[in-house]
Design brief:
InterPro entries: DUF559. This protein is an alpha+beta fold and about 220 residues long. It has helices at about 20-30, 35-45, 80-100, 110, 125-135, 185-195, 205-210, 215-220; strands at about 1-5, 15-20, 50-55, 55-60, 70-75, 115, 120, 140-150, 155-165, 170-175, 200-205. β10 (about 170-175), α6 and β11 (about 200-205) form a beta-alpha-beta unit. The longest helix has 19 residues, at about 80-100. The model is unreliable at about 1-10 and about 110-115 (pLDDT under 50).
């Protein structure tokens, strides 16, 4: 499943992984980029040199199991600090992949409360905002996913809490809670990305959305 190999030169020691596990590693290393099997084959498989992104390099290692089996790839870093981080990520993913799949448990009452009008939300604070928007007849898309191009020309998959339409204009309303918004720098970077495409983002704390949803929507509409 995984082994340390010497991809092209003795000093380049990396991790050999099949496609499924490699995609998990890549998504953990760079969560802002949407890695796919098609992308790997189009950009890495046919290249004579390893594909480099940041301090990491990625190369294609064939299909040792034969036709119908997963392809293999090698990822490595010549920087010791990043190589150590890579090893921790790979080991963590390999450990989780060996764990038995847990049996699905019935939803708790709290989890069931995260649904409103047949749509699912990630917190009670989001449900509170959805109810106000619904009551006011304002069109909105909860947990809206999109494909968007960043300034480097790479197309990313991003998700908003609420994509709201008011008087023909689209705006983003984000409910900032600790569970889903732990990286402020990443959030602000994503906000700038949407702004580049004419989609301003307005953020409110989960606490004010939960306890003062009317006031939050009022301020959002003013903004």
């Amino acid at each position: 499943m995984n082994s340390l190999v010497a991809p092209d030169r003795p000093e380049e020691t990396g991790h050999l992984l099949r496609t499924t596990l490699m995609l998990k590693v890549l998504s953990t290393l760079t969560p802002g980029f949407h890695w796919t099997t098609d992308w790997l084959h189009a950009n890495v498989r046919g290249s004579e040199q390893p594909f480099q992104f940041g301090p990491y390099r990625l190369s294609y290692k064939g299909q040792p199991g034969g036709r119908g089996t997963e392809h293999q790839w090698c990822i490595f870093s010549e920087d010791s600090q990043h190589a150590q981080r890579l090893e921790q990520i790979v080991n963590g993913i390999l450990t989780r992949s060996r764990m038995p799949v847990p049996i699905a448990q019935p939803q708790t009452e709290a989890q069931q409360a995260f649904s409103f009008q047949g749509m699912t939300y990630r917190s009670p604070a989001e449900v509170a905002i959805a109810k106000v928007l619904e009551a006011r007849g304002i069109p909105f898309f909860p947990n809206a996913r999109c494909r968007i191009v960043n300034r480097s020309g790479i197309t990313l998959t991003q998700e908003t809490d609420f994509l709201v339409f008011v008087q023909g204009k689209a705006r983003i309303l984000e409910v900032d809670g600790r569970e889903f918004h732990q990286d402020a720098a990443a959030d602000h970077q994503r906000d700038r990305l949407f702004a580049l495409h004419g989609l301003p983002t307005y953020r409110f704390s989960a606490q004010e959305c939960l306890y003062e949803p009317e006031e939050v929507v009022n301020e959002f509409l003013v903004l």
